[in-house]
Amino acid sequence: MNKKDIMIGAIVAVIVIIGAIYFLYPKQEQPGKYDSFAQCLTEKGAAMYGAYWCNHCAAQKEMFGKSFKYINYVECDARGENAKPELCEQAGITGYPTWIINGETYKGVQQLETLASITNCTI
């Protein structure tokens, strides 16, 4: 082996190590655009009732993006993940999505501005 081959091997090894470090170490997740707003809604007792198959629920979730994880969401279909159909029945939920905030019921997709107005949370 000559010096050129050793040098090329070393460069390739460094590139492989840097690539492995990049892919193996998790990247820090950036906060969602509406994290503080979603957390405020939950702190104020707001809850969204829905079903996994509901297109309107999906649209409501999409409005929050990855910040939806902070929303107090109740899955009403027994086949859904973490389903609590008994809570939906107790709350008198008849359609999806339904928000219950301060004892008041709001049916259908709600604009973020509407939720902010009802709860005094800042978007």
Automatic annotation (TrEMBL):
Signal peptide: none annotated. Gene3D superfamilies: Glutaredoxin. The chain crosses the membrane at residues 6-25. This is Thioredoxin domain-containing protein. The keyword Calcium does not apply. InterPro entries: Thioredoxin-like_sf. Keywords: Membrane, Transmembrane, Transmembrane helix.
